[in-house]
Structure formats: structure tokens, C-alpha cells
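Revision sheet: C-alpha cells.
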Amino acid sequence: MSDPAHPLTLWLAQASVVFYAVAVLIAVSNGATTGRNFRRWRAAWSAACLLLIIHVAAAFHFEHGWSRAAAFEYTADQTARVTGINRGEGLYFNYAFLILWLVDVAVLWTVASKVPSRLRRSTDLACIFMVFNATVVFGRRWWIGLMIAFGVIVTWLRQEKPGSADAADSTNLE
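Predicted:
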């Protein structure tokens, strides 16, 4: 990173990833489809999303002075540093990801489907991609291998098994 980020901005990003990891671990170890496990998983999943929202607000406040243009330029500079391509459009992927996760959490609390949906799977894959990408472009390099391994394992473990009760459940939000 060319300029060290404000500690709160970094802490919020890391805390969001930790709560995401907790949610995933709950889902893959105990299953998130039963009462208490579902409530714990939903709380961790929602907390991760909320921390991401606060991280974005902190980044705009501390790093970019509430300027979308400054955020775009910073993203372009960091992307150029890593890839040699001076483009800031990655910022729009951040916006799209945040909207996707917000919709997922809203659906989770209003419909409360306990069965993984395409929306939730899309959010999972987007989380993995965004954490990896943020690590490569903005973060410390030691996270890269960890996040690749974590993402592959989580994606593999969370796939529905053919013929499982979850796969046959008609409450799946597709």
C-alpha cells in the first residue's frame, strides 16, 4: 500500500472477513438449517455485511474525503501498482458486491429461508473473489494463499449434495 490506511478502515475490513469466516464455519461444521445454528449463522453473516458497510463508510471518510472521484483514482492507482493497468472500475464491483450482500441479508431476515439459495451462493462466491482481490490490490501478501485455500474449501464444502434434504426442499429461494 502506498499510503497506510486509517487503522479503523483496516480493522473493519478484517473484522468483516472474520465474521464471514465464522458464518461459513458454522454453516459447514454444524449446518445452518437448524434453530440455534441458523440464528448464530444469520447473526454472523449479517454482522459481516454490516461491518463491510461501516468499512466502506470509514474508507470514504478517512481515505477519500467523501469523494467518489478520489476513491476511483485511488483504486486506479492501486490497480496500476499491482497490474500495470491504470483503471478504477473495480470500485463499481465493490458497489455491486455491497448491494448483492445487502439484498441477501434483507432476504434472509424477511423470508428467513434456511436453505442456501442461488443468491446466497452468489454472495459467497463474490465474497471470496472480493477478499482475494482486495488482498492482492490493497492488502498484505500473506493473506493470498490463505484466502485461496479458504475459498476453495468453503465453495467445495457448501455445494449441495445430490439427493440431500436441502436439495429437495421447496423453500429454496431461486
